[in-house]
Amino acid sequence: MRFYNFVCGVLRAFSKIFFRMEITGQENIPDDGNLIIVANHKSVLDPVFMMASVRNRRIIPVAKKELFKIPVLRLILKKLEVIAIDRENPGLSTIKGILKQIKSGRVLGIFPEGTRSETEEFLPAKPGVALFALKTKANILPMSIISTYRPFSKVKVVIGETIDMTEYNTRKVDKKEYQEIAQIMMDAVEKNYLENKNGIKK
């Protein structure tokens, strides 16, 4: 935990100095309970801004397995307990590991688009996040990261209100609905993004 707190402190300092990070909605992050934070993904810096924005919970990020091939980065990721995932074919053990972490009280930080969007458009959400949400009955918190990602520019992190999952937690859900449910989460992220993007120069 000390290493995690140290890294988050460094990330906060980095974000404030080089990106003048502004965070709104931190009061929406519950202090306990199963929780998944979903965010848009346009830069490799997005996980940095996500971790720097959450002070009252520990985030267990999910990262593509390819990043673990870089020796120094692999060491850091393992110490932070980042979960490696094969984006094309996530194994059962990986899924079980993620579910276990959520149920233990740690927060899953995930980018449902699955990869970075290289345009202003949002990519369709992958269905996996719906599986994680339904299996753990987690609260879903949308996080919108708004930035040009240029050094010394401004980044806005908007943490929205919890997405109501009652309908899906009180009935049997067909797997065919997973993508639709995941898209509802991303729609909330996109809505907050569009409503708060003013002031961020392109």
Automatic annotation (TrEMBL):
GO terms for cellular component: membrane. Its EC number is 2.3.1.51. It holds the Pfam family Acyltransferase. One of its GO terms (molecular function) is 1-acylglycerol-3-phosphate O-acyltransferase activity. Residues 35-148 form the Phospholipid/glycerol acyltransferase domain. SUPFAM superfamilies: Glycerol-3-phosphate (1)-acyltransferase (SSF69593). Keywords: Acyltransferase, Lipid biosynthesis, Lipid metabolism, Phospholipid biosynthesis, Phospholipid metabolism, Transferase. GO terms for biological process: phosphatidic acid biosynthetic process. It catalyses: a 1-acyl-sn-glycero-3-phosphate + an acyl-CoA = a 1,2-diacyl-sn-glycero-3-phosphate + CoA. InterPro entries: AGP_acyltrans (IPR004552), Plipid/glycerol_acylTrfase (IPR002123). NCBIfam families: AGP_acyltrn. The HXXXXD motif is essential for acyltransferase activity and may constitute the binding site for the phosphate moiety of the glycerol-3-phosphate. PANTHER family: 1-ACYL-SN-GLYCEROL-3-PHOSPHATE ACYLTRANSFERASE. Belongs to the 1-acyl-sn-glycerol-3-phosphate acyltransferase family. This is 1-acyl-sn-glycerol-3-phosphate acyltransferase. It comes from Peptostreptococcus russellii.
